[in-house]
Design a protein that fits this description.
Length: about 210
């Protein structure tokens, strides 16, 4: 059978010919918004984005005059009401450290947590009992601080992995993750003129 284990491919509450047609399209490489990430033919495709939900990691720069910068993680969910989200933002721990994180910053969230105790990643979740749609909702923030000194300006990616994105009833919703980036400016080494201190000679002692 070309049907997935869940026959209701288009989530309209029925299992009918429309579901079969959608899967047939996927099987021959005609992408539609209901194609699985790894279709039956073994070809890999990016996740579908039906509904237009997007989780975006912001970008920023730790400039010479600063030791840290705060990056937001935002959600655009214009169509399907989101009830739960769980995402992981990864970073290069050899370049920066995490000074703090805050979850469910936006008032749209009922509750949420963040965990920065895992090297190289920060985990966020959030729930909204009645579901929510909207734009630029802040899932959380990460405050990065300088790590070991860098010799040149260094830019690292901030990818996001979406673990859970569902409606209030627990049904998975399609969503796309957009990575950010963080630039750390190098602090020039202070160059000071060498200080030369003349060593005084011992005074001569005249003997009569």
């Amino acid at each position: 059978s070309l049907h997935l284990p869940t026959c209701d491919t288009n989530e309209d509450g029925t299992c009918d010919n429309a579901d079969g047609s959608l899967m047939l399209q996927c099987d021959v490489g005609l992408d539609n918004s209901f194609c699985p990430v790894t279709p039956l033919g073994g070809r890999t495709r990016p996740p579908a984005t039906r509904g237009g939900a997007v989780v975006t990691v912001g970008s920023g720069t730790i400039v010479i005059e600063q030791s840290e910068v705060t990056i937001p993680i935002t959600l655009d969910a214009p169509t399907n009401a989101m009830g739960a989200i769980n995402v992981i933002v990864t970073y290069d721990e050899t370049v920066v450290d995490v000074a703090a994180c805050h979850a469910a910053v936006d008032s749209a969230f009922d509750e949420g947590y963040c965990n920065a105790n895992h090297a190289g990643e920060v985990r966020f979740n959030g729930v909204v009992a009645d579901g929510v749609t909207g734009k630029d909702m802040v899932v959380g923030t990460i405050t990065f601080e300088r790590g070991p000194p860098v010799m040149t300006d260094t830019t690292i990616p901030l990818p996001v992995r979406i673990q859970t994105f569902s409606d209030p009833n627990g049904a998975t919703l399609p969503v796309t993750g957009v990575a950010g980036q963080l630039t750390v400016q190098a602090i020039p080494l202070a160059v000071t003129p060498a200080e030369f201190t003349a060593t005084p000679r011992n005074p001569e002692v005249l003997v009569a």
